[in-house]
Amino acid sequence: MEIHKVSTEVNGAELSLEVGRFARLADAAVMVRHGDTMVLVTVVANPDQNKMVDFLPLTVEYREKASAAGKIPGGFFKREARPSEHEILSARMIDRPIRPMFPKGWRHETQVIASVYSYDQKHEADVLAAVGASAALSISRIPFDGPIAEVRVARIDGEFVCNPTHEQIEACDMELTMAGTADSVVMVEGGAQEISEDEFVEALEFGKEQISMLVELQNELVKLCGAEKLEFSLPELPEGLEEAVESLVVEQMKEQVRAGAPKEIRTERRRTLVEETREKIKESYDPEEYPDHDIDKIVGKIVGDIEKREMRSMILKEGKRLDGRGLEEVRPINVEVGILPHAHGSALFTRGETQSLGTTTLGTKLDEQMIDGLRPTYTKRFLLHYNFPPFSTGEAKRIMGTSRREIGHGHLAQRALEPLLPDSDEFPYTIRIVSDVLMSNGSSSMATVCSGSLSMFQAGIPFKKAVSGIAMGLIKEEDDVAILSDILGDEDFLGDMDFKVAGSSDGITACQMDMKIQGISMEVVKRALAQAKAARLHILDKMNEVISEPAPDLSPFAPRLTTITIPTETIGAVIGPGGETIRKIGNESGATINIEDDGRVIIAAVSGDSAQIAVEMIKMLVRQPEEGEVYTGTVKDIREGLGAIVEFLPKKQGLLHISQIDHHRIEFVADVLKVGDKIEIKLLEIQNDGKFRLSRKALLPLPEGFEPEEDRGGGRRYGGGGGDRGGRRYGGGGDRGGYRGGDRDRGGDRGGYRGGDRDRGGDRDRGPRGGGDRDRDRGPRGGGDRDRGPRDGGDRDRGPRDGGDRDRGPRDGGDRDRGPRGGGDDRY
After folding, report:
1. Could you give the CA distance from residue 625 to residue 19 in angstroms, rounded to a whole number?
2. Taking 70 as the threshold, does the pLDDT of residue 100 lie above it?
3. What burial letters (b/e) apply to 77-116, b meaning 16+ CB within 10 Å?
4. 516 contacts 487 by C-beta, under 8 angstroms
5. How far is CA 764 from CA 629, 638, 742, 759, in A?
6. What pLDDT digit, counting tens, does each position of 702-743 carry?
7. How far apart are CA 531 and CA 485, in angstroms?
8. Is 458 helix (H, G, I), strand (E, B) or coil?
9. Which of 192, 355, 570, 658 could form a disulfide with 438 if both were Cys (CB 3.0 to 4.6 A apart)?
10. Poorest-confidence range of 126-130, 399-403, 540-544?
11. Rounded to whole angstroms, how far apart are CA atoms 54 and 536?
């Protein structure tokens, strides 16, 4: 098969359509490329008609391959599975503009599949897929009254851009996706920052020019490789059946459409009329004589066509609608707020026979939704979920999970509200709105906008302005046009347009338009927008009568957010290894903690006490020790002869030397302190090596008769609390110096133990170890009385090492802070 390619330039990059290289067994396949983004769109139609259906059997799928962006799918299965919300929304954006272009009576199963195979992180693939679908249908044998084209229009700094890059979309104040033929607009959907109706029309006119260019590009492709269209015919009805039904029901139908009854009464009357007509028709048309026709279904369709004709005629000629309203009249509105006592915010919005129950829930940053698609993973802080249960239309249907319609309607309502949300810096909550449609007879998505806005006000969210929405309809016969405000479900079904407009009193924030005919002129769009504005403001007035601004306080059941700032270098200490510390804070306080990279700590708690506990725990973690400060510490370890290890701040420990426990002499540390004891201590000194010297004694009142002692400083390694001698191995102070090195005075210039040069004897004759004559009578090691004297000078009666009478005092202390010869912790 020959390869054909046509191209043009859009937003500074080549946009091309290529046929003949890929998927040649499909009825048609087009590879659309813009920049380095590539989408393959295929169309296939079953050659045989499906006689069991009386509708267009069209399905559209849009799928993104993770490999297109150089990614591997997340999750356990590591392959693309069910479509994401973005993929579903993109499929709808393809389906809606191409569906009206199929001829009436086309009953061949038709499938359109768009697959994204390359994504350059700039050019979006969804609008390219719609162009590819139109191009593939146009060159195929499938009857299609196209081409159509779809473009995205963004306004950046007052200038319109066609098919903007992702970065340009982020910077714009208006984004519309629109589709149409060379002459008319077929579909519009988008959002904006409160734009005027005139600005909206300007965007449509700009987009229409771009659509015409892409339609012409497809026409070039059709000339190169277009196939001859299939011929098909509608099944012929039994002769005279249509006239027979007409004669039976036309007068009754004229009365029914003008009766101005509620939906359930109209539905019951229609059902009764159809059943009576079927029974009468069977007298003349026996179903057994027409095995190729479903007489009951045909009768129902003919009655429906008569109803549609009479309704449209009544609206165009008499200006009267099915429920008796005028063309611009909005149904009665009822608003209630706060009807769900435990919800953070709630509102019940009722407009005629359409009712939405909106609930607002506040959460923390941890509740944000993570989106993993072709673009880098990001999160959403505003969620709106729309539910459409079957009872809302008085039907009993199987619930099969969230439908595409529910996703699409929820997305539209979310777009309408999102521009007026408070900034995350001002209101750092995650916000979720759930709209449960309890009754539906016309535009439940716009009722969702109203209930969502009201529930956020009632929840106390600083939502900037109230937002409402309205659905407009259209009846068009030749040059006769009627625009309907606040359409009913039947007016939507039997009419030619569904045009939804949402916004505040100052401008449009979202819109959606779908045509059931092949487009309308811009003049009709302008009329519809002006009429929609009047209806939107009327609804806003009704809403503001009940609640016109956010409640002053949040619900007592909503989490309160407390924000503190910590030094960025302490973030790791607050999180802890593997998140252990932050989880502990959450468990003990009952709060939820989130830490930003800039050091902001956001604490969410329902009660103020819970938040305060978390704040204090975090402040303790990042608090820096200061000399002279008093702390409440926890005894972590007892070191007999040395003192106690005390944690006075989280992850900050110091030595409470035995000499600093009390004014009195302490024989055994365990007699005074135990592991786990809470004690008040004072930080005496932060030493050069980062060690902490603590004192309990400094906080105790001086006993009567005691004289305050001078703090002589700590040992070289352990920061001991003074004393004349200090521990032999711990450097506990005094004249002897520190452990294992350095110069120390051990009784003359002796030097450090086990290291360094030292003069062990000074000017004294010690003599050999084994005894012998020397100036100092040491005596044998085995015992005996001898006058040795203290090592650091001065007279003392020490006695032999293994016994004898001498006043030595315990090895672990006494009035000389010596400490044991072995053990201890070298860190202190």
Report:
1. 73
2. yes
3. eeeeeebbbbbbbbbbbbbbbbbbbbeeebbbbbbbbbbb
4. no
5. 47, 40, 22, 10
6. 887 777 665 554 443 444 444 444 433 333 444 333 333 334
7. 7
8. helix
9. 355
10. 399-403
11. 37
